[in-house]
Specification:
mainly beta; five-stranded mixed beta sheet; 21 strands
């Protein structure tokens, strides 16, 4: 065989088997002996704990009763002569006959309007309030609701008793809390319902006795009260600040006033309703 042809065959055989010094070497990831730098290498400050937000509740301060040392008080006045409330005709139920019981839609004594619900409606945005606790008691006695107006905090339970020797039917017209309509015979256990949400003033009536009603309001903070028989009220334990205080009446609507009060001080809020 021709020597030249034999040499060419030998070279081809070496190349096919990967032999010889000219065979390619595996590629290096970093082109040298140093270890590759990857994005997984921790930075110096990656091991520090994440900073905590020092302000709880999304920027609001959690409320505690000990934080409030201010008081707002006043009188809800009635402009004009006190209206004469008609005597209620209870003849439809002989067990309800109570001579001289009058309606309570507008009750005025000493120039003051009773049965208003007073509350702080502006100025509390910087605070986060928890739910209220305990029971708010209402009785049916003499075929009327006592008290006639009820203010309570979300989370509290309204407990409605029947002290009369006749059957009543408790019918709530709440909007945001579950409404209920429940018969309550004489001697029956109290009807108890938790008011879990803020709710505007709503009536509670007796379907058995058309004249029986009371009004309930539920708040998402503890700064509320009702005016007494002469229209007086007090809102204690407020933090210092400027507030809108609102008085609401079942038939006469709402009045409001702005008041500023300092720590440890008492400010006066006066409002006037007229027929």
């Amino acid at each position: 065989m021709n020597r030249t042809l034999i040499g060419v065959c030998a070279l081809l055989t070496l190349a096919a088997c990967g032999g010889g010094e000219g065979a390619p070497k595996p590629a290096s990831n970093n082109g040298g002996s140093k270890p590759a730098v990857t994005n997984d290498t921790p930075k110096a400050d990656d091991t520090k704990p994440a900073a905590q937000d020092p302000t709880p509740s999304g920027g609001k301060q959690d409320w505690a009763d000990s934080m409030g040392t201010a008081t707002v008080s006043g009188k809800i006045a009635f402009d004009g002569d006190a209206p004469v409330m008609p005597v209620i005709d209870m003849s439809s139920d002989p067990k309800c006959l109570t001579d001289g019981t009058t309606e309570e839609s507008v009750v005025v004594n000493d120039g003051g309007l009773a049965n208003c619900i007073i509350s702080v409606t502006k100025g509390l945005d910087g605070y986060e309030f928890g739910d209220g606790s305990g029971k708010v008691m209402v009785d049916q006695k003499g075929c009327k609701y006592i008290p006639h107006v009820v203010a309570m905090q979300a989370g509290q339970t309204i407990s409605i008793s029947n002290s009369d020797d006749t059957v009543h039917n408790v019918h709530s017209y709440s909007k945001r809390n579950q409404a209920f309509n429940q018969a309550q015979p004489a001697g029956a256990a109290a009807i108890e319902k938790e008011m879990g949400r803020k709710d505007k003033m709503f009536p509670v009536k007796c379907d058995m006795h058309s004249w029986m009603n009371c009004h309930v309001a539920v708040f998402d903070h503890p700064f509320f009260t009702t005016s007494d028989a002469s229209g007086n009220f007090t809102l204690p334990k407020l933090p210092a600040g400027t507030y809108t205080v609102t008085a609401e009446h079942e038939t006469l609507g709402k009045q409001e006033v702005s008041v500023t009060v300092a720590d440890g001080a008492t400010a006066t809020a006066a409002m006037t309703f007229k027929k």
